[in-house]
Amino acid sequence: MDRTTEESATEWRSPMVDVSGMSLDELGAQEGDSTLARALRRLADELDEPGEPIAGFNSAL
Amino acid sequence: MRTFRLTDTAFTALAAGRPSAATVGVLRRAQASRHLLELSEIRKLGGPVPEPIELFDPMAALHTAVTRTALRAGQTPPPPRRAATHHLSASHRGHTLRVRLEDTDPLRAELGLTPSGRLTTDEVAEWQRLLSSAWELLTTRHREAAEIMAATLRVLVPVEPDPGASGLSATSAVAFGAVAISTPGDPRSFAVGLLHECQHSLLNATFTLFDLVNPGGARVCSPWRDDPRPLSGLLHGAYAYQSVARFWHVESRRRIPRQRPGHAALPGLSPARQDSAAHLSAVGSTARTDGPVEVSGPDETGPHGPAAGSGGGLAPEAQSRDGGAAELRGRLAEFEFARWRGAVLSAADTLLSSAHLTAAGTRFVGAMRAEVAGLPVGSVHPRVARLAAGANAEHRARWRLRNLAVPAHTLAELVSAWRAGRPAPVPAESELRADSGRRLESSGRLRLVHEALNDRPAAAGLRPGDAAYLDGDGGTALVAYIEEVELGAPDLDCWAGISALSPQVALRERPEVVRAVWIKLIKSEKVGLTALAAWVGGSLMSS
Prior knowledge:
The complex is a heterodimer of chains A (61) and B (543). With 61 residues, chain A is an alpha+beta fold. Helices cover 34% and strands 26% of the residues of chain A. With 543 residues, chain B is of the alpha/beta class. The interface between A and B is large, with 39 and 74 residues. Chain A: This is FXSXX-COOH protein.
């Protein structure tokens, strides 16, 4: 991700696309979008190397 | 196509564990986006796409992730999801928490712990009662944290308890807002457990947006686990324990009035809640000697007492105490706060010095560290602060003893030099043993400390040095632990106690080296542990 400055406010830009308001069909229509492709590649990398569940808080009380 | 953004102000507030409602909304949308992207891949792979799509449901997202993985591996995808119908709701002071109590989803074990079976009506009612009490506590005394929790938490998955732990909980990176948790013993444990896990969910969603840790890096000592952890795991722990430290900081500033045994009241909670709060210990009437006390982290030394011939000493108030136990009663919150504050600061320092954080990660960890460093420690009694520092020092020692092996050639050189009467050679770096899997912290001494702070009688297992340790007499404790080593077959707790208390650099910094050489030598000759540690320490001081 990038750290950029826009309108005097420093921002952290994520490579993740916001498709939360779309349907599957609408998302399918966006195929070929380079931003989407980048987000998909990053997600695939992450999913192919999943971490363990974050398990094990022991309240010890 | 639009991508997610956070202002630096929002980003650092998130790092400090204080995300705004808008930021939690961004994280939620990010997780929904991730879910939809995975569904699109499933459709391309010809897999089953559920109808309707519940994009924001954490267990639906978990089902999608498992389905995608199965399809990619050429395996049969899981059957359709079956959501539970138990819905819990808690309202207090205008704040409402609504969650689903999940006991039917066949994939709920994917959260990492063994799920309980189907719940009875009485069990569901008990979960509701505990949730209402925990929510009352959170909204009364931890309102900001409660608001974040209400925006984050959606599903509770009851899991089987672990015999070796008082309470277990877990989250999954692909199920934002779902928490697996064993039946809590009381509302306060429940509240702090949920806070802890919601932080994991927030950080999981943050990882979806930003890369904070670069790949690679060694597995390191984590202040809350006995097994070595990757840097990303250390960050997860630090972020979660940040909320735990803040919770106990608030709790530590409250005085809990003395009640007759078994009926301690939780200030701010209604009398009707007293049964569920009966675990809380009463605070003694002993005058406090409060004052600013800086708490050291796991990388620092513990409550050192005078070792044989060391000339060290305890602070005066520890030596003029009233027998010890009364001062500690009811100070569990102070202990937990001091311990986890020190642990988070230490973990943050490890991360910042790792050279494996991204620019975003450096900013994130720096903001998290600043938040925790800003929690004042003035409310912590000096003796409790020393016990907290001791717990962290002991943990670090036990971690080294358990996970680090002295290279064979180093051990041979040290043994040979000792027998020849030569100065100790500088020992090579110890090596990580083979991964033995997840291991929660286990310490007999820590259990005794908790019992003392909770005003419960010490259970079996009090070793000769432990009573002195609890009394704040580190010198006597150290002598007793060393005697135990020299007389018999000490366990790791004994060695960890020595390391936490000793003023000798070799025992503090490289206990695994001293122990390995000791075990090798003691088979054939009589060796004094203090003398051996001084000899090994000579090499460390000169290196």
